[in-house]
């Protein structure tokens, strides 16, 4: 079984990875995919340009994925997103990797008890493969 985990280094993403490892078992393959959006993510980094901010963010993402990696895991990939919706990019990457399952953490929408986060909700609406949503 091949599983793609939506990764952002958060506690929720780590919980999603643990669930993916439980589902995959010893013979499964897990890929971590972190989608960075230059328009929103680069705003939190002090750098002379958006490009340099994205290089910094990409390095940070690679570092958190390297820490999370365990023996037998597949690839850890950072995707620099340019204008495409993050949910669409997660789904297209999962399909391109031949994933049997996409695992994503859900960040509860503020003020909406029981509501899913917007990325998880959009992934569920558009998915053509099974999706496991892990509550964060």
The CATH topology, please?
Rossmann fold
Distance between the termini: 24 Å
CATH class: Alpha Beta
Would you tell me the overall average pLDDT?
A: 79
**What gyration radius follows from the Cα positions, in whole Å?**
15 Å
Which architecture would the CATH scheme give at its second level? 3-Layer(aba) Sandwich
* Helical segment count: 5
Percent range of helical residues? 40-55%
| Gross geometry | globular
Biggest sheet architecture:
5 strands, parallel
Please count the beta strands (DSSP E, at least 2 residues each): 5
As for the number of domains, it is: 1
Encode the helix/strand succession as letters.
EHEHHEHEHE
Runs in which pLDDT lies below 50 for 5 or more consecutive residues are none
The CATH superfamily turns out to be HUPs
As laid out across the biggest beta sheet, the strand order is 3-2-1-4-5
Beta-strand residue percentage:
15-25%
**SS class:** alpha/beta
């Amino acid at each position: 079984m091949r599983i793609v985990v939506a990764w952002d280094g958060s506690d929720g993403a780590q919980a999603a990875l643990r669930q993916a490892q439980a589902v995959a078992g010893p013979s499964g393959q897990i890929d971590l995919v972190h989608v960075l959006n230059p328009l929103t993510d680069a705003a939190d980094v002090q750098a002379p340009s958006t490009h340099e901010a994205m290089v910094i963010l990409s390095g940070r993402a690679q570092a958190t994925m390297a820490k999370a990696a365990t023996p037998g895991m597949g690839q850890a990939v950072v995707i620099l997103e340019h204008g495409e919706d993050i949910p669409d990019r997660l789904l297209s990457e999962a399909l391109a990797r031949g994933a049997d399952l996409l695992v994503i953490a859900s960040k509860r929408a503020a003020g909406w008890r029981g509501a899913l986060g917007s990325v998880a909700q959009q992934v569920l609406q558009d998915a053509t493969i099974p999706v496991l949503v892990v509550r964060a």
